[in-house]
Give the backbone structure.
Amino acid sequence: MEDRVLNFAIIGCGVIAPNHAEGIVNTPSARLVAVADIVEEKAVKFAQKYNCDWYTDYKKMLDRPDIDVVNICTPSGLHPEMAIEAMKRGKHVITEKPMAITLEQADAMISASKEYKRKLACIFQRRTQSIFKKIKEVTSQGAIGKLILGDAYMKYFRSQAYYDSGDWRGTWALDGGGALMNQGIHCIDLMQWIMGEVGSVFAYTRTLARKIEVEDTAVSVLEYKNGAIGIIEGTTSVVPGFDHRLEFHGVDGSILVNGEKIARWEVPGLELKLDSYETAGSTASDPRVASYRGHQILIQDMIDSIKNDRDPLIPGEEGKKALKIILAIYKSSRERKEVYLDTM
Ligand SMILES: NC(=O)c1ccc[n+]([C@@H]2O[C@H](COP(=O)([O-])OP(=O)(O)OC[C@H]3O[C@@H](n4cnc5c(N)ncnc54)[C@H](O)[C@@H]3O)[C@@H](O)[C@H]2O)c1
């Protein structure tokens, strides 16, 4: 068991990178030693703020033997090659969501993690929030009985200017999808984490309001493997943008979530002090994640998983689950038929 401070490096100094940097510098057993961005100005500014080294070529940064963990904050389609390159060079990896935009790439990352014996952790920071951990805990214990319905309504707003703010946004090649692959994936991950594995989907996805390649509006009906059914609705096109609603129903009770707060707690015999749960701020119409706390928990978890040689909280296999549901939804819409996830 190692007891030293671990050295972290970040690739990509854009919107989400500060959450990683703050998570690292606020964790006593972590140190931020370097950042990389192809845009020199961004790398320099970021490095000055966090008092670390900077690079424009991430591979040069990876040459450094003192880097233990690499946090990948680049456009989604670039995560696989960067993660594999980093693991090959002996670094552990924390990747932003989605870990990849195809199942083949996700599998290649998981294989690389095994081959090079490096930890691969995926960011789904909502899994670290106490309200979602509580819902997971009580539903797993059967507190609302057999699960029958699970719905996620994610009616967000992102302007055309948001999509135009980066040439990768809204593209198949680098965003890998739209309202579901970029924004909705967090809640899709929570749904499958809490409700159980998804068996099949039938979906319509459309590009109705934005000038982008990918979907800005999607509706899907799902069947979970445990027999429960449900809806996933995701958009980035409704004004002014609303907090997501997640609804969990069992034969004995219901739990409704609005944004990051529990709106109804109908769990027989189990009181919940609603105000004891922290909130993370709404991303309904603003992509900046207000709190770095969730990222910090996953950074600390990476350190603990290295020191105790255990799997991280959200390893590659877990990160792949929401990706697979979304790719099934796209396939269903394209082919106009129900898609069974086990056949993918
Ligand atoms: N966890 C969350 O809630 C959350 C929120 C926002 C974004 N994200 C994810 O984070 C990733 C980045 O999103 P963003 O909004 O920060 O994007 P962004 O465009 O603001 O930042 C990406 C950065 O990567 C840099 N970059 C591009 N190619 C590079 C390369 N080859 N080498 C080094 N740097 C390179 C760009 O110059 C840019 O600064 C995406 O995968 C996105 O899905 C996650």
Observations:
- The mean pLDDT is 95.
